[in-house]
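hey
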């Protein structure tokens, strides 16, 4: 399935890309959104607990991607890592269906059960991330780079970048059938059934991939020692030799940090009784569809006009959406702000991801996935969620939407995210100068 000289990908390749990417993003949507709901609903976790879980998961993802990416490069294989990884990934999701029962049976009282439940959720989130990052972040991303070229990566990234929101649509749309309102008036879910279904789907995709996915046959790279290869992307000589790649990664780092200021708390905010309550899915669904369509179509623009020109519009939409979400909790304003923010978010991700692939040396694709995760996942998730938690704990500002506390997100998290995203501007100027 070598597409290095062919701009048009076969239909079967597109099917495999969509199937694996969609399933992976459904699993990540569970982690990035439902684990945050689950740990708060099941065990009464605070926003700091959510931030700790996000940061621990990001550290796990980075270490895993570094090791597994280099390992797949040395073996010259991607398929086994992807297929087996998805099966184990799905199995780890199944564990969450039993965490409430496990914590209750092991603890002596309600408070101890809650504390143990928070700890177990964070630990098993890291276990799930280990399998998911090895299969998806390290090997599936490297596989996509192997089979694409600079004539079709914008189209592929347009589709890939729409998957996070489409997966959210599938996840939250499906979860509506498991939704109910508890005695305190808070929207919650039948988490046991929910995690069983998602885990089974991920396992099924892993099994199907054994039959549908063709090996990309990257050239095995056994030069140097394994540990030396792990640090390949962090060498000063490599950074100097691929200046544009690392500048784009730096811009992506800033943008991802801006996103992580509020994204871990986004659904927690929307479902607040004084924001959208149980109507939040009905507002999110059309917003997600609009943003996904925009991103798929916008991916074509990246191929035509280039990164520096294409990334401007999504960044502007992102900032505008964040400002609207800060200003008011009224449903029309939240809907408009969400559409703009989500469209900008996915459009910018499509631009950054395509440009990173275009500038990644093909003989070291796997080794550089760890650098990508370090800059796009680890650093943003170690910084962004704590900014959002601190902004909420401060109580917000009078006259700007919803004030928060240690357990409730403030609308000011969106304004803080917009402010951080503006740091992208000088980085993008530097990228443009490399053209």
């Amino acid at each position: 399935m070598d597409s290095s000289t062919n701009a048009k990908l076969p239909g079967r390749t597109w099917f495999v890309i969509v199937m694996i990417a969609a399933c992976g993003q459904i699993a990540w949507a569970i982690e990035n959104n439902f684990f945050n709901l689950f740990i708060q609903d099941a065990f009464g976790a605070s926003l700091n607990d959510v931030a700790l879980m996000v940061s621990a998961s990001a550290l796990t993802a980075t270490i895993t991607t570094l090791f597994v990416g280099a390992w797949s490069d040395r073996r010259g294989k991607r398929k086994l890592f992807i297929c087996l990884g998805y099966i184990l990934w799905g199995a780890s999701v199944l564990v969450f269906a039993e965490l409430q029962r496990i914590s209750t049976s092991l603890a002596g009282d309600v408070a101890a059960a809650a504390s143990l439940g928070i700890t177990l959720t964070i630990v098993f989130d890291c276990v799930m991330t280990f399998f998911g990052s090895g299969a998806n972040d390290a090997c599936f991303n490297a596989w996509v780079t192997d089979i694409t070229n600079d004539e079709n990566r914008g189209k592929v990234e347009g589709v890939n970048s729409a998957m996070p929101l489409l997966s959210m649509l599938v996840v939250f749309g499906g979860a509506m059938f498991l939704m109910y309102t508890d005695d305190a008036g808070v929207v919650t879910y039948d988490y046991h059934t929910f995690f069983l279904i998602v885990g089974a789907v991920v396992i099924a995709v892993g099994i199907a991939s054994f039959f549908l996915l063709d090996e990309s046959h990257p050239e095995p790279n056994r030069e140097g020692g394994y540990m030396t290869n792990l640090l390949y992307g962090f060498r000063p000589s490599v950074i100097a030799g691929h200046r544009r790649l690392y500048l784009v990664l730096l811009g992506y780092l800033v943008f991802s940090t801006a996103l992580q200021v509020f994204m871990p708390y986004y659904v927690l905010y929307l479902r607040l009784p004084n924001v959208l309550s149980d109507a939040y899915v009905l507002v999110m669904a059309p917003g997600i569809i609009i943003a996904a369509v925009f991103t798929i179509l916008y991916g074509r623009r990246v191929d035509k006009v280039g990164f520096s020109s294409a990334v401007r519009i999504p960044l502007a939409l992102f900032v505008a959406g964040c400002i609207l979400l800060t200003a008011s909790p009224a449903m029309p304003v939240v809907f408009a702000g969400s559409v703009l923010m989500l469209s900008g978010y996915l459009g910018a991700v499509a631009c950054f991801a395509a440009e990173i692939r275009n500038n990644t040396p093909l003989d070291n694709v796997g080794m550089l996935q760890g650098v990508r995760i370090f800059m796009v996942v680890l650093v943003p998730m170690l910084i962004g969620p704590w900014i959002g938690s601190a902004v909420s704990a401060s109580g917000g500002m009078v006259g700007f939407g919803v004030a928060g506390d240690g357990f409730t997100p403030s609308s000011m998290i969106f304004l803080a995210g917009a402010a951080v995203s503006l740091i992208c501007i000088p980085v993008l100027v530097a990228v443009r100068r490399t053209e």
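The radius of gyration is 21 Å. Confidence is low (pLDDT under 50) at residues 1-5.
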